[in-house]
Amino acid sequence: MYDHLKKLQKKHLTKASEVLTNSFIDNPMFVYFFPIPNKRRKILRSVFPMVLRILQSNGSLYVTSDHVEGLFCVSQHGEKTKLGKSILAALSCAFRLPGVFIQLSIVDFLRKASSLQSSNSKLNYYKNNYKNFLLVDSVCVDPLHRHQGHMTTMMSAAVAETNEKRTFCLLQTETVQNVRIYKHLGFSLVEEITSDEIPFSTFVMIYDPFGLTTNRELDT
Question: 120-140: per-residue pLDDT in tens?
Fold first, then answer.
């Protein structure tokens, strides 16, 4: 399934952080948190190395090649996190967090973060009511390498794993353009979450080829 991709290695970390920054610099959620463009870029450059460590501790991170045209993370809900990876992720965060805090207002950040609770409610529903399904996170392609099939290559691997394990796959995005791409790959829109407090929508999408969730009430 993932033979045509590479597991993220130490040599990929710097490039992977750059790709994440370049890909998410205009993401509505990060624009909401950090509205000043130059400041946003500095913060994301500091944050994404930590994000990569955390993702590695919770799932499997793949890159398209050693050139890291794109990357994404696949994790299985209910699978235990390895203690060693969790410790390394925590140490990495502890080392970098002071530099992040210097660049932002903690009070403002926490206020905005609290307003995102509604956008997480749908994913929390699945996490509380289902086991052994796949979660896809941080899917991105470097802007210089878009429209070359990298997104399809990555997501097709996740779809193949979903089919092999006879389960379903969830993801969340804040961009309408991605919704169209995921629909083309077989995902369905579960819900568009909006709020008067948040100036963007959150789209929760599912790939459920075996109908494992269709006969259950999805109250949130």
Answer: 788 889 989 998 999 999 999
